[in-house]
Amino acid sequence: MALTIASREVDGVVILDLSGRITLGEGSVQLRDAVRGLISKGQKSILLNMAEVNYIDSSGLGELVSAFTSAKNQQAEVKLLKLTKKVHDLLQLTKLYTVFDIKDDEASAIASFK
Amino acid sequence: MRRKRRIEYQVNEPKTGRLSLTLKSTMESVAELEAVAEKLATEAGLNEDECFHVAMAVHEGAVNAVLHGNEYDPSKQVSASFENTGAALVIILSDQGKGLDPDSLPDPLAPENLLRGAGRGIFLIRSFMDEVRFRRLSPGTELTMIKRLVPLEQPGKSPQGTAPLL
User: Does B61 touch chain A (CB under 8 A)?
Assistant: First the structure.
């Protein structure tokens, strides 16, 4: 299943609800375009809701890192919300768990941007 | 579609055996190889996590072959061999690219590399499989990935008593 992205805004935080796979050719480009589009419009607080992301490959992991660094370069922040077990395990294995601010609860994630 | 049905039939046959494929350098081939790997792992009795690991290792290996090896060149092919020896799953992927030196790849866990946008594929393959070997071809790279189905050393038995992988 390819990646679908739905966008909503809560208290100045744009939440991207991601669903599907983030892999080379099946989601990496959509995610990059979505995040870079927000950053280019001046959005400073971006929360990626990963609750429905059931598969991510090395390309997808790289895209998450690129989103993080692109945001940081523009004084914006990208945080992750509700990792599935598979994605959680991959972030731990690759030590990316130490890079991202990862939240389990949407309300506290939104509050953490302030 | 006809080729996919044939693969299912062959993999569904005996639990042990070998399946060989030659595919185009496309992302569809990556998906096809991943599906075969998942089916092979499931039928070998591996648990859900292990099946995911085998399928993902093959996905990463196939992406390397198609993208970095053959660079989507329609004149180049990816060859694959899937075998359940009874003691292990032995999966071999070959491309016809310029060749890869796996020892030259930077460590993706090093602090200075953590924020790199690429370079984690072979690390994941090595993490998920029990044995990983690279061999230079002329031209190309052959990647052998092994997932053991029985422990390397069983309690009370000498290493010589374990089943051979190949």
Answer: no
